[in-house]
Amino acid sequence: EPTTFVGEKTPRSFVEYINARSNAERVVGGGLLPGAGRHIMLDTLVKIFYKSPTPNQVIAGSQAHTHRTPLGSYYIEVMKAVHEKGQSYVTQEIENLLEKLESDDNKAKNTIRRRKINILRVFEEEYKNKDIPLEIPEEDDKGRVIKNVRSNSADNDHKKRDEL
Q1: 46: which residues sit within 8 A by CB, 6+ positions away?
Q2: What are the pLDDT digits (tens) for 53-76?
Q3: Is the pTM of this model over 0.85?
């Protein structure tokens, strides 16, 4: 059903209106928001993945959350690859996606590639922070963070996953 735009008649307001209704994750000018493709709960599961002594359990448990974003299954794919191949997988995957961005003019594919790179950056950052105590965000029914809860259940003496 059509809706009427009643906001300010500015490019920014119009883009915000479209983003709110379509999950386009765009900025004025057509680029992507810095967090495009990501989801707070899946980002938190990446933190847990790096802090857990049992990453296979984290991977299995994370699969129930893939519906939260169109690229939810990509988080799982990366977790599995990191667990099997080591952290270097993330760097290699970013390099591959950047090469494809430069060589391919397909805008739809490049949007997906940029979103995947944003997700991979979460893996890079959480790998660097794997020894910092975990804070788990609590969400409301719309996926917005209400508060962070500190967890002491993560075993900080887990095996390093530099390279398997």
Answers
A1: 75, 79, 122, 123, 126
A2: 999 999 999 999 999 889 999 999
A3: no
